[in-house]
Specification:
By secondary structure, this protein is of the alpha+beta class. It has 5 helices and 4 strands. It has a single domain, classed as CBS-domain.
């Protein structure tokens, strides 16, 4: 099962956001859809990602000025996988892809810089169990 391709379990209909959206609106979209991350796309090209944890934490600390756009706070470059990668590789990327000791919970799936899906730790757990 860990040799299955990412494309077999990824979410293909991905909610995204554009770089020009206000941070407050982006956070509302995260909360409304109960998701932990939003890939940031510009003409279907992945340019960044924001997470509910990062945005929410910084909103509480009042780190954003009124009118701050997603482009100013998004994480880039984005750690990604290919749809042809194995689930095992996705797990390795999640474990080793964060800049600190954290584990990535969401991995955008890209082909030729275009977002084609997203795979989460929850997708992987459902596949294993």
């Amino acid at each position: 099962m860990l040799n299955k391709k990412v494309s077999e379990i990824m979410t293909k209909d991905v909610l995204t956001i554009t770089p020009d959206v206000d941070v407050i609106n982006a956070f509302e979209k995260l909360m409304e859809h109960k998701i932990s991350a939003l890939p940031v796309v510009d003409d279907d090209v992945l340019v960044g990602i924001i997470t509910a944890t990062d945005v929410g934490h910084n909103l509480i600390l009042d780190k954003y000025e009124l009118g701050t756009n997603v482009e100013e706070i998004m994480v880039k470059p984005v750690v990604t996988v290919s749809s042809d990668d194995s689930i095992r590789k996705a797990i390795d990327v999640m474990r080793n892809g964060a800049s600190d000791s954290n584990i990535l919970n969401q991995l955008p799936v890209v082909e030729n810089d275009k977002l084609v899906g997203i795979i989460s730790d929850g997708d992987i757990i459902q596949e294993i169990f």
